[in-house]
UniProtKB/TrEMBL annotation, chain A:
Residues 75-189, 436-556 form the PurM-like N-terminal domain. This is Phosphoribosylformylglycinamidine synthase subunit PurL. ATP binds at Y53, K92, D494, G531. Its EC number is 6.3.5.3. Belongs to the FGAMS family. Keywords: ATP-binding, Cytoplasm, Ligase, Magnesium, Metal-binding, Nucleotide-binding, Purine biosynthesis. Its main location: cytoplasm. The active site is at H50, H96 (proton acceptor). It comes from Devosia nitrariae. Residues 16-54 form the Phosphoribosylformylglycinamidine synthase linker domain.
Automatic annotation (TrEMBL), chains B, D:
It is found in: Cytoplasm. Keywords: ATP-binding, Cytoplasm, Ligase, Nucleotide-binding, Purine biosynthesis. It catalyses: N(2)-formyl-N(1)-(5-phospho-beta-D-ribosyl)glycinamide + L-glutamine + ATP + H2O = 2-formamido-N(1)-(5-O-phospho-beta-D-ribosyl)acetamidine + L-glutamate + ADP + phosphate + H(+). This is Phosphoribosylformylglycinamidine synthase subunit PurS. It comes from Devosia nitrariae. SUPFAM superfamilies: PurS-like. Belongs to the PurS family. InterPro entries: PurS, PurS-like_sf. Coiled coil: none annotated. Pathway: Purine metabolism; IMP biosynthesis via de novo pathway; 5-amino-1-(5-phospho-D-ribosyl)imidazole from N(2)-formyl-N(1)-(5-phospho-D-ribosyl)glycinamide: step 1/2. The lineage of its organism: Bacteria, Pseudomonadati, Pseudomonadota, Alphaproteobacteria, Hyphomicrobiales. It is an enzyme of class 6 (ligase). HAMAP family: PurS (MF_01926). Its EC number is 6.3.5.3.
Automatic annotation (TrEMBL), chain C:
This is Phosphoribosylformylglycinamidine synthase subunit PurQ. PROSITE patterns: GATASE_TYPE_1. Part of the phosphoribosylformylglycinamidine synthase complex involved in the purines biosynthetic pathway. Catalyzes the ATP-dependent conversion of formylglycinamide ribonucleotide (FGAR) and glutamine to yield formylglycinamidine ribonucleotide (FGAM) and glutamate. The FGAM synthase complex is composed of three subunits. PurQ produces an ammonia molecule by converting glutamine to glutamate. PurL transfers the ammonia molecule to FGAR to form FGAM in an ATP-dependent manner. The gene is purQ. It catalyses: N(2)-formyl-N(1)-(5-phospho-beta-D-ribosyl)glycinamide + L-glutamine + ATP + H2O = 2-formamido-N(1)-(5-O-phospho-beta-D-ribosyl)acetamidine + L-glutamate + ADP + phosphate + H(+); L-glutamine + H2O = L-glutamate + NH4(+). The active site is at C86 (nucleophile), H196, E198. It comes from Devosia nitrariae.
Length: 742, 80, 222, 80
């Protein structure tokens, strides 16, 4: 077979496509001839890290992905989990790190657009979004510009599309100076019997292109996402993708309308390496070949080559296999929404991926091998060394009140209001808890009392100190945040952001983090149903901190028993549920050491998963029984920060003075895991209160009564009282001041 | 000293604004419209600077703020 | 009382508005697609919020030139009440059915938060569910809510009681002149406002201050 | 036929974008900036029309859609 090719395939060209010599040899062996330029592009797109998961696949397989409620685990556009009553929640998280560094607004916007598309491709209407953002040091010259662009982009797309953004994370660290992280999460709701998949079925059926036209956007983008940045980044820059949320909103409505007609056999959105990945996946999954006629692809620009069309990452596009007798009906729907609709190919029975253009065949490749035979590596890795414990006499001291005020007004613990007020958190009218609590909560449309909770978590500094414990902690914190609202954690999605896996230390971080995530998910019965891997997050050889972001979803059977973090009234006893005997002990890798003393030493806190589950189940029980009046889990900044957040949210103070004879620093700033603050509307002298304490003890849970709400000051042990108003102004001040350049 | 900076999208960059306007113009019956691309103008008044100095300053303003040079081109016109 | 919600492509708070009208009025409104030739016989026509046509030219500009707006204009002349919320308000100003314009927020940022609104004129069908001077809670969510009118227009609408709502207690989120959050046309049969009363009508929303608008309206035209 | 339409705010109309940019430029150290006003440009391509016809059509487009004549002025420039 000969296919005309006017571009010579040189070793340099192969290397420019991110293909290693042995990978290229594998291509030659597979097809028995030199690939055409277009074919080389197709291989590079399918075999790069982003699409093939070649470095991570071996380890991803070890994650628990099944559970009684899991309808669809990893491998489709998004995970699907049963929430009862014939409905399912469909969700996923995905990174758009490199594009956001190059063009923060459009990079973030198209990241949000991509994840929304993943969700509605499955037939689900998006109901909630989150965004986990990591920027360089606040004082780094690019940071402020990147923050303002990324946040505007996330909002610009999500707000216009019409999905409430109910949660997320924002962190700053110098390790992200040259490589920010933008991880976008979306969840949607669908009927369990109307989920759509990407597997094509049936020979000779039309392959239909829908949505926006194809331009040269991001040609080479998927390859770029799998390459390290260097100083020559400008040369590598492809045409930036621009998001069009108006088109996406129409695409959503048109797709859902079309799905309801029964015309759709298979559907796949065009994400990274657009037409290539989507067509190959649909065919390969269904054991079918695909033939495309590029002359029919709607294009936005003149003289596009087949190579460009196959690799274009133009946004807001979909590929479908349709029932032939419904083609006209489908076309009418798309025309009503003023979107492009073109039959660009058909399914075949020969397992080939054929591309025709101007009467020539420009590619003819074995479709299964493009996906299944992608290289898979067992990359060498070395287990990271756990840091030595802090010496017992090595606890830097500081006035507790001063330390608290400084931390609450610092970049790590301060309010993210500046960010989330740029997001529409209320649209759709179902938001029960908007950002600022432990998890965002939206009620299930059409159901009187059911709701879903969402949280996104990871603590990269723990992952760096100990990727295994850090991986566990990310899952546990997410599970805890969901639990703190009263939700049953259902399942999670993971977004694994790491450096260059070809370096054994980095590969070691990835392996150990996945092992930790897997362990936590197993014990907590919190399966991973979708995810995304972003590697090569490095600039000039320096990697980011290992950042496996976990996005979790929980189910609240009755939202009238939804717990919030604000103290609910005066004179309510405060319990520290799940505490070690000294309330708090662990200062290794704490915010106290890092942000007040510039120390990054000590081990990451240990997560006792069995204890975690027991404590969480107990707290959830208190919420469901209506006993808990306010609940907040403890994370960064420990007990002091947790109390301050509850006080600020309510305007009510608290006095916490029951513990004597311990060093106050670990007590108030230790970051021991598995702890919750819970208030109850019970008299501390009452029998009911004592019964509660007894019940905790019976479960083997230490749940000391540590203090009482009331007044307008927060009093921590013997420290000077701090006015809640002062805490609030520190807490609310940092972000707006920083963005105003003060 | 007055100056006008015109910022336009680079060729090949998607222009959803232009597209929507094009669609609307056609809907309003302007059938001859083959394409619309939208851009921005900034009219600046500068205090006492020579044309030379003004041009240098404005170029810097464009690079730093007025244009997003990843996706936009700019042109500077100085009048009087 | 019969109502209709008009939907343009890109609007996204239509379902919120339909839910509010249904929950408070008891019957769902008619939903009219912008390409429909006509609007059923109703007492109230609502244009909800969102980003019609992406708000790509000026907020509301493209929708304001759609043929369905001629139908709305005709109905308005016949005494049908017209309510525009957020993008609906922007569309009504662009269509010339309400005075003034809505410009980019002074912060240049999208803003979603709760504000306080003072009811500036409670003596209309839209606002009779409130008392004059009453301060209510209400969420906003917009990028272009910065109300502006030239001095004569401003004087005229102020004198004529055409200001419906003002941001109160220093909560103006967008730089609007005279803290204006909502305005009527001259005979008070058309109301446009930036805040979203439809997102504060049940305990799940954390408050019901938005109900007053719908209650007053539904009673009046019932 | 190509044309450029420039839409600018009328004098006296508040320009939040221009103001914010003026503030940022000063913040960046461009001290000589006395004022900034932001406007829009539309680059149109029109199919086969005489310059005369094009000008008439474009003027209508401005009146009907491209400019909000309550607050904006427009100018039309036709090239070739
Ligand atoms: N980028 C963001 N978008 C939306 N909400 C955010 C964002 N960043 C932080 N938040 C919200 O701010 C609150 C505090 O965040 P965080 O400290 O990460 O919470 P937690 O410690 O409970 O995980 C949460 O409610 C979170 O959802
Ligand atoms: Mg929390």
């Amino acid at each position: 077979m000969t296919i005309p090719n006017d571009t010579a395939i040189t070793p340099q060209l192969v290397a420019d496509h991110g293909l290693k010599p042995d990978e290229y040899q594998k291509i030659l062996d597979l097809i028995g001839r030199e690939p055409t330029f277009t074919e080389l592009g197709v291989f590079s797109a399918m075999w790069n890290e982003h699409c093939s998961y070649k470095s991570s696949k071996k380890w991803l397989r070890t994650l628990p992905t099944q559970g009684p409620r899991v309808i669809q685990g990893p491998g489709e556009n998004a995970g699907v989990v049963d929430i009862g009553d014939g409905q399912a929640v469909v969700f996923k998280m995905e990174s758009h790190n490199h594009p956001s560094f190059i063009e923060p607004y459009q990079g973030a916007a198209t990241g949000v657009g991509g994840i929304l598309r993943d969700v509605f491709t499955m037939g689900a209407r998006p109901i909630a979004a989150m965004n986990a953002l990591r920027f360089g040091a606040p004082e780094h010259e690019k940071t402020q510009h990147l923050v303002s662009g990324v946040v505007a982009g996330v909002g610009g797309y999500g707000n216009s599309f019409g999905v409430p953004t109910v949660g997320g994370e924002v962190e700053f660290d110098a390790r992200y100076n040259g490589n920010i992280l933008v991880n976008a999460f979306a969840a949607g709701l669908a009927d369990t019997d109307k989920i759509f998949y990407s597997k094509a079925e049936g020979v000779g059926l039309p392959v239909v292109y829908l949505g926006a036209k194809t331009g040269r956007d991001g040609v080479g983008g998927a390859t770029m996402a799998s390459a390290e940045f260097g100083d020559d980044i400008d040369q590598k820059r492809p045409t930036v993708q621009v998001g069009d949320p108006f088109t996406e909103k129409r695409l959503l409505e048109a797709c859902l309308e079309l799905m309801a007609t029964g015309a759709v056999i298979a559907i796949q959105d065009m994400g990274a390496a657009g037409l290539t990945c989507s067509a190959v996946e649909m065919g390969a999954k269904g054991d079918l070949g695909i033939e495309l006629d590029l002359d029919r692809v709607p294009v936005r620009e003149a003289a596009m080559t087949p190579y460009e069309m196959m690799l274009s990452e133009s946004q807001e596009r979909m590929l479908m296999v349709l029932h032939p007798d419904k083609e006209a009906e489908a076309r009418a729907i798309f025309e009503k929404w003023e979107l492009d609709f073109a039959t660009v190919g058909r399914t075949t029975d020969d397992l080939r991926f054929r591309i025709r253009w101007h009467g020539d065949e420009v590619a003819n490749l074995p479709i299964k091998e493009l996906g299944d035979e992608a290289p898979e590596y067992d990359r060498p890795w070395i287990a990271p060394q756990a840091p030595v414990p802090l010496a017992t006499n090595d606890i830097p001291q500081m006035d507790v009140a001063d330390a608290l005020l400084k931390l609450m007004g610092g970049h790590q613990l301060s309010s993210r209001r500046w960010v989330y007020e740029q997001y529409d958190t209320l649209i759709q009218g179902n938001s029960l808890q908007t950002p600022g609590g432990d998890a965002g909560v939206v009620r299930v449309e059409g159901h009187p009392i059911k709701a879903l909770a969402f949280s996104s978590d990871v603590t990269p500094r723990y992952c760096e100190a100990d990727p295994y414990e850090g991986g566990k902690q990310a899952v546990a914190e997410c599970w805890r945040n969901l639990t703190a609202t009263g939700a049953d954690p259902l399942a999670a999605t993971d977004n694994l952001n790491f450096g260059n896996p070809e370096r054994p230390e980095i590969m070691g971080q990835l392996v150990r983090a996945i092992e930790g995530i897997g362990e936590a998910c197993r014990v907590l019965e919190f399966p991973i149903v979708s995810g995304n891997v972003s590697l090569y997050n490095e600039t000039n050889g320096r990697g980011i901190m290992p950042t496996p972001t976990i996005g979790g979803v929980g189910l609240i059977p009755d939202w009238t028993h939804l717990a919030r973090i604000a103290f609910a009234g005066q004179n309510q006893p405060i319990l520290l549920i799940g505490a070690p005997p000294a309330w708090g002990t662990h200062l290794g890798q704490s915010i106290y050491l890092r942000d007040l003393f510039e120390r990054k030493d000590g081990p990451a806190p240990h997560v006792d998963l069995v204890h975690e589950k027991k404590v969480g189940d107990f707290v959830r029980g208190l919420i469901r029984a209506g006993t808990a009046t306010a609940v907040h889990d403890l994370s960064d900044g420990g007990l002091a920060a947790g109390l301050a957040e509850m006080a600020i949210a309510s305007g009510i103070g608290a006095t916490v003075s029951q513990l004597e004879g311990y060093d106050p620093i670990p007590v108030f700033f230790g970051e021991d895991q598995g702890r919750y603050l819970v208030t109850v509307a019970l008299d501390a002298q009452s029998e009911a209160f004592h019964d509660l304490l007894n019940e905790a003890a019976v479960h083997g849970i230490f749940a000391p009564w540590i203090g009482t709400t009331g007044g307008t000051d927060l009093v921590l042990g013997n420290a000077r009282p701090v006015a809640v108003a002062d805490l609030r102004s520190a807490y609310e001040g940092w972000f707006p001041n920083y963005m105003a350049g003060q | 000293m007055k100056a006008r900076v015109t910022v336009t999208l680079k060729a090949g960059v998607l222009d959803p604004q232009g597209q929507a306007i094009e669609g609307s113009l056609k809907g309003l019956g302007f059938s001859g419209v083959a394409s619309v691309r939208q851009g921005k103008v900034f009219d600046l008044v500068l205090d006492g600077a020579s044309e030379e100095e003004a041009r240098i300053a404005i170029t810097q303003m464009c690079e730093k703020l007025l244009a997003n040079t990843v996706i936009e081109n700019y042109a500077v016109e100085i009048s009087n | 009382m019969k109502s209709a919600v008009v939907v343009f492509p890109g609007l996204n708070r239509d379902s919120d508005m339909i839910a509010a009208l249904t929950k408070i009025g008891g019957t769902p409104p008619a939903v009219v697609w912008h390409q429909d030739a006509t609007i059923p016989d109703v007492d109230l026509i609502v244009i909800p919020g969102g980003f019609s046509y992406g708000d790509y030219l000026r907020a509301g500009a493209i929708a304001a030139r759609s043929p369905i707006m001629d139908v709305i204009r005709e109905r308005s002349e016949k005494g049908v009440r017209i309510l525009g919320v957020c993008n609906g308000f922007q569309i009504l100003t662009e269509a010339g059915l309400l005075p003034g314009v809505l410009m980019r927020n002074a912060s240049l940022k999208f803003v979603c938060r709760e504000v306080k609104l003072e009811v500036a004129n409670a003596d209309t069908v839209f606002t009779r569910g409130y008392t004059a001077g009453q301060v209510i809670r209400c969420p906003v969510a917009h990028h272009d809510g910065n109300y502006f009118a030239d001095p004569e227009t401003l004087a005229r609408i102020e004198d004529n009681g055409q200001v419906a709502f003002r941001y109160a207690d220093g909560t103006n989120p967008n730089g609007s002149i005279h803290d204006i959050a909502g305005v009527f046309n001259a005979d008070k049969s058309v109301l446009g406002l930036m805040p979203h009363p439809e997102n504060l009508i049940e305990s799940a929303h954390g408050g019901i201050d938005g109900r007053g608008l719908f209650n007053g309206l539904l009673d009046a035209v019932a």
